[in-house]
Amino acid sequence: MLSPASLAEWTRAAGLLDETPEFTARDLAEAVEVREAVYRTVWARLEDRPPTEADVDLLNAHATRPRLVPTLLPDGSTRREGTLSGLLATLAADLLDLLGDPDFGRIKRCANTDCTRLYIDSSRGGNRQWCGMSECGNRAKVKAFRRRHREPH
């Protein structure tokens, strides 16, 4: 179940923010709205159809806001802090950059039919099948192994 705390955890795990503010239920709803618009827009592009006007308006509105800005610390490391508005602006602007990038054609959907994740296939041969080996890829390999070992030779 999504919660403001899960939004905070995601921002840290994704490396978007080093420290997160206390997100509210309203913040979570706004983040989910942007996430879903991103997802629908990428799918529209993958299916060679235009995105909805509402998604275009929402993503453009967020992309024009001030983005997250990394800070260089005296020890040479960097720190990323900011607000939900800056986070969503960064995500929307990054999506707009990705839509115009030649690598957009490398975006794929996970081969696991139960998974809805999209990923950029950066493998040398462009033949990656799963969003990640630690989850979907491993499950598929275990399933195939069990199937091979159940069948008589």
TrEMBL record:
Coiled coil spans: none
Q: What is the species of this protein?
A: Acrocarpospora phusangensis
Report domain Zinc finger CGNR positions: 106-149
UniProt-recorded name of the protein: Zinc finger CGNR domain-containing protein
Q: Which Pfam families match?
A: ABATE, zf-CGNR
